[in-house]
Amino acid sequence: MPQQIKWYEKYPKLFKEIQEDLKSSYKTLLFQKENDNYSVIGFLIIEDPFQKELGRYNIKMTFTENFPREMPKIFEISNKIPCTQDRHKYLTNECCLCLPDEVFFYIEKDYTIIDFIEKIVKPYFLWQLYFDLNSGVSIFKHRGHGESGIIEFYKEKLKTDNINDILRFLKDAQKFEIKGYLKCYCGSDKKIKKCCRENISDLKNRIQIETIKKSYESLYKNFNK
Ligand SMILES: [Zn+2]
Ligand SMILES: [Zn+2]
Fold first, then answer.
1. 187 C-alpha vs ligand 2 centroid, how far in Å?
2. How many Å lie between the centroid of ligand 1 and the Cα of residue 13?
């Protein structure tokens, strides 16, 4: 079997930057080698805007073979957060940080590890802290878990309430280009090129094709019986 090239071999510059960024900005997070991959382990400290510590979580960060196209995974291993759907945490301790479809609305595609921690990871844990403090009442807007989150996101982005428009977009978006003469996904009955063209091409550009496929499959199963 051919040996797969590891992400850190493929992107040596990024690999070095991650190590340096962690060292300089997150002293409680340590980079370590584990088997033939790297991971990050330690405490993530959540602070208020005046650098007062609000809480800390013992976490582990791992990198998938599709990193950086796929963001790192975070596991909360101090078990402060229950593994339930409403807390966006899986039974494996993995945190459901953000809807994959939505990630690149928060960070650029060439994100640094600092962007990832500050804009994706810390907001997740801040939300968890507030959840515990206010018994589930949150000042932060957040999405439902799994399918309900996918539907919410696409309803908002495509400006439609119709699940069929969402399915149609997810199907068309798997192709190279979305044809402008098709009926728009917002339900206006106009052609895309005369309606939400810019919005739709921006949306398509920000979502990885694998993610679009996954979302399509998970919605299709349930809504196309
Ligand atoms: Zn979730
Ligand atoms: Zn439209």
1. 6
2. 32
